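Dear colleague,

Following up on Tuesday's group meeting, I ran the structure prediction for the three-component complex that the binding team flagged. I've pasted the input sequences exactly as they went in, so you can double-check that nothing got truncated or mislabelled along the way. The structure tokens for the whole assembly follow below. Feel free to forward this to whoever is handling the docking comparison.

Inputs:
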Amino acid sequence: MGLLALLKKLKSTPDKELRILLLGLDNAGKTTLLKSLASEDVSHITPTQGFNIKSVNSSGFKLNVWDIGGQRKIRPYWRNYFERTDVLIYVIDSSDRKRFDETGLELSELLEEDKLGGVPIMVFANKQDLFNAAPATEIAESLELTNIRDRPWHIQACSAMTGEGVEAVCIICSKVFPGQYAKLVERNGEHQQAGSNIHITM
Amino acid sequence: MGCLFSKSANHTKLSEDESPQEFSWDKRKQLDVKNFVLDKQSGETIGRLPGSINGQQFIIQNCENCDIYVFDHCATVTVDDCVNCRIFIAAIKSSIFVRDCTDCVVATSCQQFRTRDCKKLTAFLCCVTQPIIESTTGVKFGCLKMFYPQFEQHLQAAGISRFNNNWNNIHDFTPVPGENNCSFLQQQVSLTDYLPLPTVEPLNTIEVSVEARNSVIPYTVGSKQRPAGHSCLIAIFHFNHQIQLTTNVMAMLQEFILVQTAEMTMNDSQAKRVFKKNDCLPQITAGPVIMLEYSVHDVEAIQNILKKADHREMLHISDSIEDGAREIDCLNNLTEMQMSV
Amino acid sequence: MKLKKFLLRYYPPGIILEYEQGGLLKQRTLDILNLQPTSDIDAIVDDLVRTEKLITPSKVEQVRKLVQRLQDKLAQTQDSTFYLFKVLRAHILPLTNVAFNKSGSSFITGSYDRTCKIWDTGSGEEIHTLEGHRNVVYAIAFNNPYGDKVLTGSFDKTAKLWSSESGKCFHTFRGHSSEIVCLNFDPKSTKVATGSMDTSAKIWDVETGVELCTLSGHTAEIISLSFNATGTHLITGSFDNTVMVWDVNTGKRVYTLVGHQAEISSAQFNFDCSLIATGSMDKTCKLWDFTRGCCIGTLRGHDDEVLDIAFDYTGQRLLTASADGTARCYNSTTHSLLSKMEGHEGEISKICFNPSGSRVLTASSDKTARLWDPETGEVKQVLEGHTDEIFSCAFNYEGNCIITGSKDNTCRIWR
């Protein structure tokens, strides 16, 4: 990829590429989600020491997904990556109830950041495949997501390990950028899955 | 992955949950939580027999002075706020996260090993990726030595390769200048010096051995504690008796010190760089190769012993100590490179 | 005029004459750019004597010895194997760029952890950590050949000037409205230039820290900039597909090099600054005449973006590195292809010659750096060990030490 490619990804090209930032506590499943999005093997994943970037093509859109290490020690550096974020994906380990407060705190701090002002947020309630996972609705409540007024938000139940719910990332892009997305879909003569119709509303 | 549009995406507001998509977890049956959560236990000996966890999540919290044995494979494990506990968990498909624990022993095989805010931990591991510690002091790491009849099967269920063990290669997120938060246990240390074998029924019916020679996980001294001397690389190529041959080779070489092992798939150019011979390429790249690094004075000793091995043509042994050094160097670089995303 | 002293310049080969004229001490450099390990010394000496009046008959023997030394030096660095000397783990996030000072005694590393660190090459020990930036430290430079100052450019939109001896920050240059991604000192170390994602470049005074001028004109991000050898002009390469040449004193644009069909990745002067080479994501490299401002050649052949280019120290050869995983070496005068370097399993993001021109170093996303023979294109050595992409690499002036900076948070020293 190289440094030059990183600079290219810093540019804003809203009609072609979306910059997606993947944040969350360590062990939340961010890298697994990233690999799953990129249709790669999720069985050998190392704890992230810096960051990982992957570009995923989805119906003509290019999603540049930045997965940032979430250990407590390196959370102060999340700020390095805020600029020009189009969509924030916040990943939560739904089965790690001990740390719901901690993750709630980090999330609320992110929502106060100037540089992330107005950026749509998608909360992934991950690890739903585990028995101790709190359902997405419970998590939405405890995080008080319904109080978010300054930006579009969405909560998605998923299991990055099995891949279920992961495709929602594409759906969120279609909703967040309906204008551009519709144009692209039209232009690419995009597929309609098994007779479903897409009605995109704002 | 492609983009699947859910069938009823009509007029969905951004702030509401998505349409009724059926997920696998919606259909799962209810579990008896007690089997999978150990909470506020004190002075107990607790065990789980093979088949009792069967790939579910396992949670240990607020326990004190307990001996815990899980002879099964789990999805993921968290160990929180425990003091003076000794814990064995056979195989973990994803991560084990140990937090706010003091004076504990953890023995396990896992995909990821993580700690935070712990003091005085002893960990016997077979960890497929680089173990990480954060805000943790006084950790001692050792190689897991374990056998019980179903262990191999549990490792497989958890997707863990016994040959990819990074117990010796730790990443510390909060290093302290001039100090070491972790140290490594010597070879003579037995798991039972820290974690006694269970004596209560029915746990005592499981045939457990913690001897290196019986261990399903090959005992390795680790590259950080490589003895002075030379290295010899033995590679066992992929074929239908690969594991058997590997076990035989290790048994024949019991007198030698095994520094580290690896199991990895190589492409042509990687194979050429390590092995430098073109005629074996199809065999080398046919499937995952198992690699063993032994510490030797000269390679002839090993070559002589292995002359008697079956399927000798599926083995590569370093030709000389110079070759051995170069091959191991190359290999180390490759295994590290393969670990990152 | 009275000749006082001879000085040697190894790369590119040359002899510097220090002489007294009218009571003042002056310097003149004799370039011997064509010197090879196989060159005829006598012929070269005769040539020098003929053209340079300061070399009197009594000095000829001394000059011959000096040229011999230069030739020996060139021959010396031919085929050394590099070994990993140290892995430096002091940064806690990925590294960005790395650079040596002129003597090679120390080097600097920039990182996502917002610091720049100064290291001692011999021991591999950290000398200073330059802290203060509030975001990624992306671009870094020593004020070579002096080496007493370090300039850092950051995503926090500022650049900072530091003392390499004390680690103290002299100035913070504020004014850009977006990330700073390239910078340089002028050759006399009196000015610095910064290039930014805000599409402008700025020139600042080293002594006072004051902004001297803003170079506006590009319509997209500036990602490469270079002063010429006399410090009179500056070139900026931009994502707007053009390179602009600026007069440093007036801040006015002299001309624009138009022709590339896609973003510029790198723009470099050759040794005597008669040529500018530009690499672009349009898969080509172009050569431009500096005086006339026109394109004199296009080097085609890569299957993918050209990500980096480099001249050798004499300016006679030019390298191109591409996202297609290969690198090429060209004769910069005839534009003929000299060799192709194939073997990397991923994009090559950085390329450079060693100072003597006998080796090419490439850094790749395949996590290796490789050394090549530029004559044959043969790979001489694979430097492996990094566990993630290598973002930057550099040779020291002697050519016997290499540093690589990687996304795996480490820097490696190879000797």
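Confidence is low (pLDDT under 50) at residues 187-202 of chain A.

Cheers,
M.
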